[in-house]
Design a protein that fits this description.
five-stranded antiparallel β-sheet, globular, 612 residues, 4 helices, 40% strand, mainly beta, single chain, Immunoglobulin-like, 43 strands
């Protein structure tokens, strides 16, 4: 997972006074809504957007409702507040469907119809689990999948045909000019080793081989896919202009799925997506870590302290007990030495260079007393670290908890999202749409637009009848099989409200202001939006207590509503019977007062009037 915004504290020289932090008032918007000089039909929110990667936007809450306002030509002001405590502004093109999946009414959860449709496919890749992503330079996205289906599926019945089943595969997703991933099929560049893609009547049409075979593999099926020794995806980083990615070895003889060692693969990043050497596999160190039975590095967090933190989960010796664990790089190089956070004989947690024993790791969970979890994901916002993880085993909830350090201890777990069963109406299985297993709930920061948490799921079908033992095989050639063993996507906005006393509230890369109560402003006229200096800034601006970092310079945006009515007349009785009146704050008035100034709207015309 990509590291967060680096925050710099004060420094102190020997025998010298401390360096005093200072705010730089140089933050400017990349674009705004309304834009300078724009005429709009009405106004509910003002949006200020920064470049992709600006990160969480810090906010001076003392300025809320005080230093941000819309001013009319008469100099009268309507104060605005930060919109982050209201429902998020969702653009129609995102195709998000609101669902009730959180216990907190201030947290907003959505099905992502855009990405669900994007991964509802019939040619080439048409399903797979794993589903990891990482942001690349320019906002492009590197995708990895574990066991996947490649071939041709029936678009009407959603039945997979005789697909190949490669054990891992990769893809690139292109970004737009502003650095946001493009949610269109043409933006997905499948970097598979295809059998052939030219003759639909010949064998192997759009089937694919495994991307990275394990060196110990000896048993291959008729499609050339290894069955005994495999690699499944871990996580990775961008370093030295290349992708460094972990692949976890698996002993799958007799279907036992035992974790082995971990390989480190290096991919080139020359040119742009689609270029010959973009994400070309440069090298693989199959012996990078020959023994990693606990699969450290299944997910990771690159921290500003110079370490890469490598997470996994393992049994703790209790009934259905499974706990998150962590290692880290000794330096900043993923390919360098690692150390492991374990509980010593005295009961204290410490970092050690030796790979932990089974007894050590069982006692070394980093979320003590918070329950059983699998596949933990860690990220930072403000001064806190957050861990998201699925409840174990195969739980239908993903919880989130908080800590002061990337190694924990993580506490105060909250329900982030509860998944329904069935998961989505896109499923078309004649035996029923309920899943048996929900697993590999993965986070996708690279797909996040404004700091919301993006989650993908994986599911296996229920048995056709109890005891039939055919649940897994229904993923293959049955009608509706294309909608099992594939990701569905969800977005959780304002998740910070779960930790309102400690969490930094704010979107990433943008900030919105709204009128009190979320009212829509419709009064025609010419206006000016004003945000005074030092209202918002980068993450450090807020976390430092508004004493450091970068903050905004004064912002003024001139705009109009309804073509900017400005003619002053005296209303007549006939006008009053056919018009709507607004006060100078833009609010509708049922009973205008004689002698007062109002905005009168009559059909499509609007003007200032003095009531008789």
């Amino acid at each position: 997972m990509k590291k967060g915004i680096i925050t710099f504290g004060m420094t102190m020289a020997l025998c010298a006074a401390p360096v005093v932090a200072a705010v730089s008032y140089d933050v400017e918007p990349m674009k705004t809504y309304p834009a300078e000089g724009e005429d709009v039909a009405s106004l509910q929110r003002v949006r200020i957007t920064f470049g992709r990667g600006f990160g969480p936007v810090g906010y001076d809450w003392n300025a809320d409702g005080m230093k941000v306002y819309v001013e009319n030509e008469a100099g009268e002001r309507i104060m605005l507040v930060n919109a982050v405590k209201d429902a998020p502004a969702i653009e129609p093109g995102w195709n998000l469907e609101h669902i009730s999946a959180s216990s907190n009414r201030n947290v907003f959860t959505y099905k992502d119809r855009l990405y669900n449709d994007l991964f509802t496919r019939t040619l080439g890749w048409n399903g797979g689990d794993g589903v990891f992503t990482m942001q690349l330079p320019g906002g492009h996205v590197f995708w990895t999948f574990n066991d996947s289906f490649y071939g041709v599926a029936d678009a009407a019945t959603r039945a997979r045909g005789a697909c190949s089943f490669p054990r891992n595969t990769i893809m690139a997703q292109e970004a737009d000019g502003e650095g946001y991933p493009i949610g269109e099929d043409a933006s997905l560049l499948w970097l598979a080793r295809f059998n052939q893609t030219t003759n639909p009547n010949a064998n192997g049409y759009y089937k694919a081989y495994t991307h990275l075979d394990h060196p110990k593999a000896t048993s291959f099926n008729d499609d050339g896919i290894a069955q005994d020794y495999l690699y499944w995806s871990g996580d990775g980083v961008v370093a030295d202009g290349k992708v460094k990615w972990l692949w976890n070895g698996v002993d799958n003889r007799n279907g036992q799925m035992i974790a082995l060692g971990t390989a480190l693969a290096t991919y080139k990043l020359e040119g742009e997506p689609g270029d010959r050497n973009y994400l070309k596999l440069e090298s693989v160190n199959h012996k990078f870590m020959e023994n990693n039975p606990y699969a450290y590095g299944s997910t990771l967090w690159e921290d500003e302290d110079g370490h890469i933190y490598l997470y996994s989960s393992t049994g703790n010796g209790e009934w259905l007990g499974n706990v998150p664990i962590v290692a880290r790089t000794v330096g900043s190089d993923l390919g360098g030495a690692w150390e492991y956070y374990v509980r010593n004989a005295a009961g204290q947690m410490e970092w050690q260079k030796e790979y932990p024993t089974a007894e050590q790791v069982k006692k070394s969970g980093i979320a003590p007393g918070e329950g059983s979890y699998t596949l933990p994901w860690v990220f930072k916002k403000g001064n806190s670290y957050y861990m998201c993880a699925q409840t174990f085993p195969f739980g239908t909830e993903m919880n989130i908890m908080v800590a002061d350090h990337p190694w924990g201890p993580f506490r105060n777990h909250k329900k982030l999202i509860k998944f329904t069963n069935p998961l989505d109406e896109l499923q078309h299985d004649k035996y029923g749409n309920r899943y048996r297993w929900l697993y590999m709930l993965n986070l996708h920061p690279a797909l996040s637009r404004n700091g919301e948490i993006v989650i993908s799921t994986n599911t296996d079908a229920e048995e056709s009848t109890p005891g039939a033992g055919d649940g897994f095989w229904r993923n293959f050639n049955n009608p509706g099989s294309c909608d099992w063993y594939r990701p569905f996507y969800f977005r959780v906005y304002h998740w910070e409200r779960l930790f309102e006393n400690t969490a930094m509230l704010g979107e990433s890369d943008m900030i919105e202001f709204m009128f009190d109560g979320g009212k829509e402003f419709t009064s025609p006229g010419k206006y000016k939006f004003v945000c005074e200096q030092g209202v918002f800034g980068n993450e450090l601006f807020e976390t430092s207590g508004y004493a450091d970092g970068g903050a905004n310079k004064r912002i003024e945006i001139n705009f109009s509503i309804g073509n900017g009515a400005s003619v002053e007349t005296v209303a007549t009785d006939a006008d009053m019977s056919e018009t709507v009146y607004y006060n100078m704050q833009g609010m509708a008035v049922d009973n205008p007062v004689s002698g007062e100034i109002y905005i009168m709207r009559h059909g499509t015309e609007a003007k200032k009037v003095v009531m008789p």
